[in-house]
Amino acid sequence: MATEQTFIMVKPDGVQRGLVGEIVGRFEKRGYQLVNAKMVHASQEHLEQHYADLKGKPFFPGLIKYMASGPVFATVWQGKDVVKQGRALLGATNPLASAPGTIRGDFAIDVGRNICHGSDSVESAKKEISLWFGQDGSIPYKRAVDAWIYE
Ligand code: DAT
Ligand code: MG
């Protein structure tokens, strides 16, 4: 069974709007395994590191301010193809382009308030998990239900 991991974060608007349970629940119900989680009120410096690839974009200062405006809920998920499937569960970056049934397509409207983050590749996932969780990236444990999720 694959042990791919991804970093999924409920952004400050998602936390404020009471959507942590909804977002976590969608990953759980799909069958993915939660292997780490915490609430963090991140510093601007930490968020600038997280979004380093976007430095220089016109929306960058606003993005950092929004992300630092309140606590986020940071999680690590494990399972087969979880990076790509995680992005599919979140929907398109711009919620107006997200299909109904996706998290952003069901709960968001503006791109600058799109309520959740998901790693875009296995490589970014590794970097993000290490940035947010340090050495203890995940807490491994065996799930009895895996035999009913994976063939
Ligand atoms: P994603 O979050 O889907 O990986 P991204 O990495 O390109 O998208 O951008 C990170 C975040 O930056 C995104 O979730 C919302 C914000 N953002 C992206 N493009 C934007 C834009 N054109 N205007 C305002 N905010 C934007
Ligand atoms: Mg991204």
UniProtKB/TrEMBL annotation:
It is an enzyme of class 2 (transferase). CDD domains: NDPk_I. Residues 3-140 form the Nucleoside diphosphate kinase-like domain. Its cofactor is Mg(2+). One of its GO terms (biological process) is GTP biosynthetic process. The keyword ATP-binding applies. Pfam families: NDK. ATP binds at residues 11, 59, 87, 93, 104, 114. Keywords: ATP-binding, Kinase, Nucleotide-binding, Transferase. GO terms for molecular function: ATP binding; nucleoside diphosphate kinase activity. The active site is at residue 117. It catalyses: a 2'-deoxyribonucleoside 5'-diphosphate + ATP = a 2'-deoxyribonucleoside 5'-triphosphate + ADP. Its EC number is 2.7.4.6. Belongs to the NDK family. HAMAP family: NDP_kinase (MF_00451). This is Nucleoside diphosphate kinase.
